[in-house]
From TrEMBL:
Organism superkingdom: Bacteria
Alphabetical list of PANTHER family matching this protein: 4-DIPHOSPHOCYTIDYL-2-C-METHYL-D-ERYTHRITOL KINASE, CHLOROPLASTIC, L-THREONINE KINASE
Protein name as annotated: GHMP kinase
Name of one Pfam family that matches: GHMP_kinases_N
Keywords: ATP-binding, Kinase, Nucleotide-binding, Transferase
Species this chain originates from: Mahella australiensis (strain DSM 15567 / CIP 107919 / 50-1 BON)
GO terms for MF: ATP binding; kinase activity
Length: 289
């Protein structure tokens, strides 16, 4: 065994820039943010081979061990410790971040390194996942764990997160919904905005997708939030298409305090619970120790 303790982190997201039917299949583009799941794998004293507090984390660890075909006599015992700044059930990729960090940490603990493609396929075998497992903005098939197209580098933009009230079970939601909108136009706008660095065009693509998804999983006062955001100089608004969170994509000059005050005065914040500012960052799990 090449290491006795390994720690990896993986960013979450604030929902998706776009999600829906593109070219006849359901795809999405998430953006990673500077909030993370952190997984530490270390030698344990338990008489069990694995020990972890979360079923998905334990499932991931077993999947990695099986995928790497690690002999039983080399397993020993190890425990997995989770720390996370990502809320559960809000559509902020907390599960994907847990799975990504766990896969990277367990593999490294045994002296291996997994690619983003390998981790994505593993994650999709557990539950629908997303493209925050990749460094760049990625057009992604969440159900099959397939990276379809690199859209471009993740811009370093500020985002005001409105978490939303209540929880959404992603697996149940995918099974129960009966309609997914066609978003080819939003996809074309997103590609154009990212390729030219025109973040207002990218933000408009996110608005298009958010509005189309209102009939599937509505967000309170979405049109009012969009109007307020654009009037205060933000680039656009995106939503968690399978969660409750919403993001206001800001430029560096956007006064988030003034923006929050308008939302509070209009009585909108009470429908969204916590709010805070994050920044878009490069995606993918990485080792920290």
């Amino acid at each position: 065994m090449s290491a006795r303790e390994v720690t990896a982190i993986c960013p979450g997201s604030c929902g998706e820039l776009i999600q829906g039917i593109i070219g006849g299949r359901e795809l999405l583009v998430s953006y990673p943010i500077d909030r993370y799941s952190e997984i530490t794998v270390r030698s344990g004293d338990s008489n069990k081979t694995y020990r972890a507090s979360c079923r998905k984390i334990l499932h991931t660890a077993k999947a990695v061990v099986e995928y790497l075909d690690i002999p039983v006599n080399k397993l020993g015992t190890f425990e997995i410790i989770r720390r996370s700044s990502l809320p559960l059930g809000k559509g902020m990729s907390s599960s994907t971040a847990d799975i990504g960090a766990t896969a990277a940490a367990v593999a490294s603990f045994f002296g291996y390194e997994l690619t983003s493609d390998e981790i994505a396929a593993m994650a999709a075998s557990i539950e629908p996942t997303d493209g925050i497992l990749y460094e760049d903005l990625m057009l992604f098939d969440a159900v099959n764990g397939e990276a379809v197209e690199v859209i471009g580098p993740v811009p370093s933009l500020k985002v005001l997160v409105l978490e939303g009230v209540g929880l959404v079970d992603t697996i149940c939601f995918h099974k129960k919904r009966s309609y997914v909108p066609i978003i080819d136009a939003a996809y074309d706008a997103l590609r154009s905005g990212v390729s030219t660095g025109d973040w207002a065009v990218m933000g408009n693509a996110a608005i298009m997708s958010a509005r189309l998804y209102q009939s599937v999983l509505p967000k309170p006062y979405l049109d009012d939030i969009i109007d307020i955001a654009l009037r205060t100089g933000a680039y656009g608004v995106n939503v968690a298409h399978t969660g409750t969170a919403l993001g206001i994509i800001m430029n560096e000059d956007t006064d988030e305090c003034a923006l929050v005050e308008v939302l509070r005065t209009r009585g909108i914040l009470e429908f969204y619970g916590r709010h805070y500012v994050v920044r878009m960052v490069k995606g993918g799990p990485r080792l920290t120790s």
